[in-house]
Amino acid sequence: MMIMDCNFIALNNPEDILPYPSTKSGLLDKDKAYIKYGYPSSNYPILNMPYILEDYDGNYIPPGHYEIVLSNDRKTLYFVESKIIKASIPVAKLEEKQVNQEEERKKLREKEKQAKKYKNNRRKKPLDQTERKKQADMEATIDDTNPEFYVLKYRNGNIKATGYILK
To answer: What is the DSSP pairing of strand 138-143 with strand 76-81?
Structure first.
């Protein structure tokens, strides 16, 4: 006859009894403020799509957040989710603003002025905001005011594109 004592639990690993994995700081990376509220690290605008888009074959795209990417030949807009293309929409209207040389010279002069101003004291030099301004200049919207189709508008810097999706 053998006697067992159940007062002692054999713990080889604390994750055996914990319901969630432990992290050192108590916060997951996605919950940290600089990641949660920071600017996106994407070079493409993100669309918050509230509609279900369905084609004639019965395939559909559920509501969610999608990156809108303009193809290199500028003829197609892609819905991208997790680096996977979910849908492609042909571009109906494309506007591309040519960069003015005077504007470029003006920006270059401002950078040179700022570099000269803070040459001796680099600690007082403000952070470079060009990437933040570039990301603030991106936009993607979808509009359903027309009863026959959705209007997808894309803007990234000096390029504007419009695509239409039938309902």
So the answer is: unpaired
The full set of domain ranges for the chain reads 14-97+135-166
List, in sequence order, the alpha helices (H) in 55-166.
101-117, 130-136
Tens of pLDDT along 45-66? 888 888 888 888 888 889 989 9
Q: Check if the beta carbon of residue 112 is closer than 8 Å to that of residue 121.
A: no
Spatial separation of the C-alpha atoms in residues 140 and 156, rounded to whole Å: 8
Contact partners, residue 21, CB within 8 Å, separation at least 6? 15
The predicted structure's pLDDT at residue 1: 53
C-alpha–C-alpha distance, residues 54 and 28, integer Å: 36
Helices marked H in the chain — which ranges?
33-36, 101-117, 130-136
Give yes or no for a contact between 95 and 159, defined as CB atoms under 8 angstroms apart. Answer: yes
Statement: the pTM of the whole predicted model exceeds 0.70: no
Residue 85's contacts (CB-CB under 8 Å, 6 or more residues apart) are 78, 79
Q: Which contiguous run of DSSP H or E holds residue 148?
A: none
